[in-house]
Amino acid sequence: MKEGQVLEFPSSGMLVAALAARISELLREGIDQRGQASLAVSGGSTPVPLFARLAEMDLPWDRVTVSLVDERWVEPQDPDSNEHLVRTRLLRHKAAAARFIPMKTPDATALQGEEACALAQLEAPRPYDCLLLGMGNDGHTASLFPGAANLDTAVDLNSGRICMAIRPPSAPHERMTLTLPAILASRQLFLHLQGEEKKKVLALAQAAGDARQMPIRYVLRQGTTPVTVYWSP
Ligand code: 6PG
């Protein structure tokens, strides 16, 4: 299948089947080429059925490292934690054998945890074999939020940084996010969207305009890493 396009599916079930199959193909290729593979995932509600599907897939999961694209700085048991989501929805059944790299450290703030978090990320096979993004209705992706004070640094391709603490002006919890260069350090990016509202937001993001107002534009406008959008109603 050609990457770099918008794929529309008639139902969430069909999308999930196709995306899970594609991810599993990429992970197998990664294992064939490097002996191990890496999958970085987003939180939020959209990927939940995909996680359930992936968890049941026959893959050499003991050779796969799963990590996060972003995290809310709450305890890992908190229902708002992406680690909690991934542990309870993805790292089960067959996928329970995968290695997981959390973002949350014992540090009180994400800012204090930046260095430890970046070091931990280096343990995943990089570039990631595939990285899964979502998008908010305000055009944020990962935790690259419009209006965040340090957004410019987080999207600077030459920053040399992997993780950054972010305080979203419009959402709860201090966050840790992969920076734009760390997100682009993937063989393949998937943007997983569900619903008419997200389709409208995508159309807006694809139109001309300031990327700082809709940070997903940084991902859509770059030319180094293929991005495929998976959409269903
Ligand atoms: C997070 C995310 C975030 C998410 C979007 C979409 O942890 O919040 O990684 O970037 O992907 O906010 O969220 P929904 O899937 O819930 O719409």
Question: What attributes does this structure have?
Answer:
alpha/beta; Rossmann fold; 7-stranded parallel sheet; 8 helices; globular; binds 6-phosphogluconic acid
Query: Helix amount, in percent?
Result: 25-40%
- The number of domains: 1
Radius of gyration: 16 Å
Strand line-up in the sheet with most strands: 1-10-9-6-2-3-5
Order of helices and strands: EHEHEEHEHEHEEHEHHE
Shape, principal axes of CA atoms:
globular
User: In DSSP terms, counting alpha (H) and pi (I) runs of 4 or more, how many helices?
Assistant: 8
Q: Supply the CATH class.
A: Alpha Beta
What's the number of extended β-strand segments? Answer: 10
Present as ligands are: 6-phosphogluconic acid
**Biggest sheet descriptor:** 7 strands, parallel
Give the structural class: alpha/beta
Blueprint (SSEs and pairs):
Layout: E1 6-8, H1 12-34, E2 37-41, H2 48-55, E3 64-68, E4 70-72, H3 82-90, E5 99-101, H4 110-121, E6 130-133, H5 151-154, E7 163-166, E8 175-178, H6 180-184, E9 189-194, H7 196-206, H8 216-221, E10 227-232
Parallel strand pairs: 1-10, 2-3, 2-6, 3-5, 6-9, 9-10
Antiparallel strand pairs: 4-8, 7-8
Bound molecules: 6-phosphogluconic acid.
